[in-house]
Amino acid sequence: LINLGLSDAFRNFNSNTDNYTFWDYMGGSWQKNHGMRIDHFLISNNIIDLVKKIEIKKNIRNQTKPSDHVPIECTLFD
């Protein structure tokens, strides 16, 4: 999809490689921050400038009985 002209909106704004959206329940991966970024916002290059903010909602993973994924929130237009 990247080769078709889409951009990873999160990576466009954040080059830090230890931002994840998934942590396995096994082996203390959450506590060790051993995760993967497997959830993405792909956006057309011609509207990438409309992205005002994009963030991984990591704090949701601290809730009681959380999912192994956390959402990504993308704000367009502001």
Brief overview:
The chain is 12% helix and 22% strand.
Number of beta strands? 4
How would a textbook summarize the main sheet? Answer: 2 strands, antiparallel
Percent range for β-strand residues: 15-25%
Q: With helices defined by DSSP (H or I, 4 residues minimum), what is the helix count?
A: 2
Oligomer: single chain
CA distance, first residue to last residue: 26 Å
Which runs of at least 5 residues are low in confidence (pLDDT < 50)? Answer: none
The main sheet orders its strands as 1-2
Report the mean per-residue pLDDT as an integer.
93
The value of Rg in angstroms is: 14 Å
Class derived from helix and strand content: alpha+beta
What pattern of helices and strands is seen along the backbone? EHHEEE
What percent of residues adopt helix (DSSP H or I)? Answer: 10-25%
- Overall 3D shape: elongated
Structure description:
This protein is α+β, with helices and mostly antiparallel strands. The protein is 12% helix and 22% strand. It is built from 2 helices and 4 strands; from the N terminus they run βααβββ. The strands form 2 sheets. The chain has a two-stranded antiparallel ribbon with strand order 1-2. Strands 3-4 form a two-stranded antiparallel ribbon. The longest helix is centred in the N-terminal third of the chain and has 5 residues, at 9-13. The mean pLDDT is 93.
